[in-house]
Design a protein that fits this description.
Blueprint (H helix, E strand, L loop, with lengths): L5 H13 L4 H13 L2 E5 L3 E4 L5 E3 L7 E3 L6 E6 L4 E14 L2 E14 L2 E15 L2 E7 L2 E4 L2 E4 L8 E3 L12 E2 L4 H4 L10 H6 L6 H6 L5 H8 L3 H4 L11 H5 L6 H6 L4 H10 L4 H7 L5 H5 L4 H9 L6 H13 L7 H4 L4 H31 L4 E2 L3 E5 L3 H11 L7 H5 L4 E7 L8 E6 L2 E6 L8 H15 L3
The protein binds zinc ion.
């Protein structure tokens, strides 16, 4: 048995003595039990509700959900050939003992057999919440099967033990009973947080994360009061702004749309860019990351339909392509440019073209720079140092040295750094040392494979720096 610390042992002991199941939790269980039922369909579209035993005719298909016309419960339809079916849900209750909060977790286990469902509820975990930390304890009914947890409802409760984290339990989350929360929180800093209303409007949550963290943000109360429950899950991201526009990045008339569809944070981000009340498009676009950048060039609705919805196309590639087209001064109103039918092919084409154009321009700039840099040429009997004289030579140097000097083309062309080659006079076409200079100072010198120069080479570089660079 895992050792339980004395202070927790005391709390668990008191809890066992004092805890009951409040009526409101019975009500909560009952409500969830109703959802653990099926509509059983047999010949002639004959349907039977295992919740209220009502019989009716429906053409709805097996494995779809329908509302029972009698009890109004939304239930899954199964065939009458079904032998057995199991439902499991974690239900949670916040309780308190000796001024310490304890989150109690129960499993509601329902099994269908022969036109009826049977429900059992077992409390299998208690989480002591203390000083913003939580400590889980499980009962002897909790077992591990190949890393998955299961609750042996048929076993009797005997004792509590520390939850063993070596077992690959998924983090245990649940649906929390909202009815007693307001009362539980009345003397705490969360008394105005609206956490009870939030809980009543969401499904499975990691309650302790909200209890210890998210619900403490002033924005949480504001978002729940606005009935924006999914946004309240990210209340920590709404810490700036006073007006609706400042807080949500959208004009106020969008509020009804946001509330109606219970937008989450990512959907809100899409809406900010899209500025259109199109929920199906918003949901399709919510997994993209560069929408704001894409929207500078294209209509997102058309872009989704013609380019992004094709699984073979990647958004980064698309953005890359559009930026290249803009740089090449293509007509950015031409639909053929904006929405290419073969993105991969067009992408490669414009990127290559852009490189050629870019290299031509850089080459001109480098030639201009040489008029100034050529006065730093230096040589002795063995070595010579001279400025990189063309884009082509930079690409060649890069190839010979296996370094990334090629990526310096733009910086060099724009005068943000100077690139020099040091070579042996007897073999002047062969790369030896690549030197980067900034503000008349050598900041990097590398021989092949990014190695440092030899002592003799370094001495020559130092001499050059001292005699020529520093004195100009
Ligand atoms: Zn019914």
């Amino acid at each position: 048995m895992t050792y339980v610390k004395k202070e927790f042992r005391q709390i668990l002991y008191l809890a066992d003595k004092n805890f009951t199941i409040p009526n409101c939790f019975h009500r909560f269980i009952l409500k969830k039990e109703k959802s653990h039922n099926l509509i059983i369909k047999s010949k002639g579209n004959h349907c039977y509700c295992t919740n209220c035993k009502y019989e009716f005719i429906s053409k709805s298909k097996i494995n779809s959900h329908i509302k029972c016309p009698n009890c109004k419960q939304l239930l899954l339809i199964k065939s009458d050939r079904l032998q057995r079916y199991v439902f499991k849900d974690n239900l949670q209750l916040l309780d308190k003992v000796d001024n310490t909060f304890v989150l109690r977790t129960f499993e509601l286990y329902s099994s269908y057999n022969n036109l009826s469902t049977n429900h059992v509820v077992t409390e299998f975990m208690r989480t002591i919440i203390k000083d913003n930390r939580s400590y889980d304890f499980v009962t002897n009914q909790v077992h591990n099967n190949m890393g998955y947890m299961y609750i042996a409802h048929y076993q009797k409760f005997e004792k509590w033990r520390t939850r063993n984290y070596r077992w690959a339990y998924r983090d245990i989350i649940g649906m929390i009973c909202p009815y007693n929360l307001k009362n539980m929180l009345k003397d705490t800093e969360l008394k105005y947080s609206q956490l009870d209303k939030f809980v009543a409007n969401v499904d499975y949550i990691d309650f302790i994360y909200y209890f210890n963290n998210i619900a403490k943000y002033p924005s949480f109360e504001m978002l729940v009061k606005l009935k924006l429950y999914n946004l309240a899950k990210d209340a920590d991201k709404f810490t700036i702004g006073k007006t609706f526009k400042e807080i949500f990045g959208l004009p106020k008339p969008f509020y009804h749309f946001i509330k109606k569809h219970n937008l989450d944070f990512r959907e809100l981000k899409v809406l900010q860019v899209l500025q259109k009340e199109n929920i199906s498009l918003i949901r399709k676009l919510k997994d993209y990351h560069n929408l704001a950048d894409l929207a500078r060039y294209v209509d997102l609705e058309v872009a989704y339909k013609k380019v992004l919805s094709n699984q073979a196309n990647y958004e980064h590639e698309y953005l890359d392509y559009l930026e290249a087209c803009a740089n090449l001064k293509y007509d950015m109103h031409d639909k053929k440019v904006l929405y290419p039918t073969n993105l991969a092919k067009e992408h490669n084409k414009v990127i290559k073209l852009l490189e050629i154009v870019f290299n031509e321009k850089s080459d001109e700039l480098i030639k201009e720079r040489l008029t100034k840099l050529n006065k730093f040429i230096y040589k002795d009997k063995k070595y010579i140092i001279f400025p990189a004289d063309s884009v082509e030579s930079l690409i060649d140097e890069s190839k010979q040295q296996h370094n990334c000097v090629k990526t310096y083309i733009k910086k060099y062309a724009l005068g943000k750094c100077d690139i020099y080659y040091m070579r042996e006079l007897s073999n002047i076409d062969k790369s030896l040392v690549t030197i980067e200079v900034r503000n008349q100072e050598v900041v990097q010198s590398r021989i092949i494979d990014n190695q440092l120069p030899t002592k003799g080479q370094q001495d020559f570089i130092n001499k050059w720096q001292k005699k020529i660079l520093f004195n100009m």
